């Protein structure tokens, strides 16, 4: 039997749909794995060819694209990792992630909110310090008229986060608040 053009087109469409569905299932599984262990999720997606696990830029773009489906706490913890972890790879991802964002012309408080909308800050002060330092550097470079230096932007950003935490953390007793 010979297939006509309509049958061949339908067969091709079914194959394309099947490929897309398989790819979506693999992506869903990778995101689920990331939400249990970021390292395992990245390795899984990399092994299947959905993500270049050796490229900080590719991982940052993945974080940006799927931030609404990734565990925000794990994402923040990953971005705040120390230089010794994976030879500083996570810090490179943080830098690439921050470079994607555009703060030009934004008010400082709105820029912080925009920056933090994709992940939750970790609880460790050193991790918050690393993350907010990169934010301040990026904000300063895009808004040079706002601050005299990136250090000044960092001091305000870090202080804002600390005051916000102090104000809204239920673990802090009212008589101990700033």
Walk me through this protein's architecture:
The structure is a single chain. The longest helix has 32 residues, at 5-36. This protein has helices spanning 5-36, 38-47, 56-66, 72-79, 89-100, 108-116, 125-142, 150-168. By secondary structure, the chain is mainly alpha-helical. The model has no long low-confidence stretch (mean pLDDT 89). 67% of the residues lie in helices and 0% in strands.
Keywords:
elongated, 178 residues, mainly alpha
In short:
With 178 residues, this protein is an all-alpha fold. Helices cover 67% and strands 0% of the residues.
Average pLDDT score:
89
Q: Strand content of the residues, in percent?
A: under 5%
User: Low-confidence spans: pLDDT under 50, at least 5 residues?
Assistant: none
Q: What is the tally of helical segments?
A: 8
Which percent bin holds the helix content? Answer: 55-70%
Largest sheet: none
Q: Rounded to an integer, what's the Rg over CA atoms?
A: 21 Å
Q: What is the terminal-to-terminal distance?
A: 82 Å
The geometry reads as elongated
Determine the structural class based on helices, strands and strand pairing.
mainly alpha
Number of strands: 0
Q: Output the helix-strand order.
A: HHHHHHHH
Topology, pairings included?
Layout: H1 5-36, H2 38-47, H3 56-66, H4 72-79, H5 89-100, H6 108-116, H7 125-142, H8 150-168
Helix pairs in contact: 1-2, 3-5, 5-7, 7-8
């Amino acid at each position: 039997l010979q297939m006509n053009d309509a049958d061949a087109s339908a067969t091709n469409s079914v194959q394309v749909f099947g490929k897309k569905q398989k790819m979506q299932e693999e992506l869903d599984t990778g995101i689920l794995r990331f939400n249990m262990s970021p390292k395992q999720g990245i390795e899984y997606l990399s092994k299947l060819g959905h993500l270049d696990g050796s490229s900080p830029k590719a991982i940052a773009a993945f974080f940006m694209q799927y931030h609404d489906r990734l565990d925000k706490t794990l994402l923040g913890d990953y971005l705040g990792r120390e230089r010794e972890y994976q030879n500083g790879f996570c810090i490179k991802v943080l830098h690439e992630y921050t470079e994607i964002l555009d703060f030009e012309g934004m008010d400082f408080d709105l820029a912080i909110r925009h920056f933090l909308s994709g992940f939750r800050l970790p609880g460790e002060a050193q991790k918050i310090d690393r993350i907010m330092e990169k934010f301040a550097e990026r904000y300063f470079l895009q808004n040079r008229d706002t601050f005299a230096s990136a250090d000044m932007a960092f001091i305000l950003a870090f202080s804002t986060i600390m005051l916000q935490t102090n104000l809204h953390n239920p673990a802090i007793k009212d008589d101990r608040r700033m």
